[in-house]
Design goal:
The chain is α/β, with parallel strands linked by helices. It is built from 12 helices and 5 strands. A hairpin with a 5-residue loop joins β2 and β3. α1 packs antiparallel against α2 and α1 crosses α3. The chain is elongated, with a radius of gyration of 31 Å. The protein starts with 9 loop residues before the first helix and ends in a 24-residue tail after the last helix.
């Protein structure tokens, strides 16, 4: 590809060469006319004499001989280990005694998919999708989270002291989550259990949240095969608004990957983000975090924009 400021395009090179070969100009005069060096003029003239008009096209800058390139046999070993074991460049390099950077170059040269784009269980490429509009599909899931005893857990007291002062029966919190597929808009409640009545009540409140945010209708809900989601109570809660219920295949949490990724973000950026002196402090910090997630935190799948940018009526809500 010719640079936009290049003095000679393929057409200009042809004119330059013809001035010398066909019209009898000297190389210096032709160089001055086309404002290039004599050396450049000689190169295109020689190429025109050898290949004619076809020689004026750009050629690849790839060297004809690469004596230090990784041997083909080694490249095949790298690809075989990657396919059979699904290891990254570092582990493959340690196994074969090759620099990880070299392994990475070989994998890119053969266009091997990244591990992040593969299903670790099957090795097949993950099929990513995104619904066209808000409310077309909402992912629902429950995340179990251990409560923090009063006075703090091991992050505050240290593991040894926390073990000596361990309090039995602090229990768990159940994070009921709903994430819109198109906008990634999230709604979460910290509840005491994952029973069918609790799940049904959560969905009714989540539905009201989405409606207030401008998502007037939720067409489909995707959940796993938990007993609370297979109950009549949850089915009734969906039927009240004509929402279709879809369930993932058994042992395939990747199908509900958007809410699973939200769970991970929630744990990393709120639940385990800093030491809390108790569970009350962590619960009090959650509304502000959820507001930041929906309104201000840039989402990589949305080009660095927050979920609020894809929902027209969300501005100012939940603040």
């Amino acid at each position: 590809m010719v640079h936009r400021n290049a003095p000679l395009t393929p057409t200009g090179r042809l004119r330059l060469a013809r001035c010398v070969v066909d019209d009898g100009w000297c190389e210096r005069r032709a160089a001055e006319r086309f404002q290039v060096s004599v050396r450049t003029t000689r190169r295109w003239v020689d190429r025109y004499r050898e290949h004619g008009k076809a020689g004026m096209a750009d050629r690849s800058s790839r060297p004809q001989h690469s004596p230090r390139r990784t041997p083909t046999r080694t490249e095949r070993r790298i690809i075989k280990v990657r396919v059979t074991r699904r290891w990254g460049p570092a582990r493959i390099g340690f196994l074969l005694g090759i620099a990880p950077s070299t392994v990475g170059k070989v994998l890119r040269r053969y266009r091997v998919p990244r591990l992040a784009d593969l299903d670790r269980a099957t090795g097949q490429a993950i099929r990513r999708y995104e619904r066209d509009r808000p409310g077309e599909l909402v992912h629902v899931d429950i995340k179990k989270l251990g409560n923090i005893p009063d006075g703090g857990g091991h992050k505050v007291l240290g593991r040894a002291q926390a073990k000596r002062h361990r309090r039995r029966g602090v229990g768990y919190a159940y994070l009921h989550n709903a994430v819109d597929d198109h906008s990634r808009l999230a709604y979460t409640e910290l509840l005491t259990d994952e029973r069918k009545e609790t799940a049904a009540g959560f969905w009714r409140r989540a539905r009201a949240f989405f409606a207030h945010a401008g998502i007037e209708r939720v067409e489909r809900v995707l959940t796993d095969n938990g007993s609370c989601y297979r109950s009549r109570d949850f089915a009734q809660a969906l039927a009240e608004t004509g929402t279709v219920h879809k369930r993932t295949r058994p042992y395939r949490p990747q199908t509900n990957g958007k809410v699973e990724r939200y769970n991970r973000t929630l744990l990393e950026e709120w639940a385990y983000a800093r030491p809390y002196p108790g569970d009350t402090a962590r619960r009090e910090a959650f509304p502000a975090w959820l507001h930041t997630y929906n309104h201000h935190r840039g989402h990589t799948a949305l080009g660095g924009h927050p979920p609020a940018s894809r929902v027209t009526n969300l501005c100012g809500f939940y603040s």
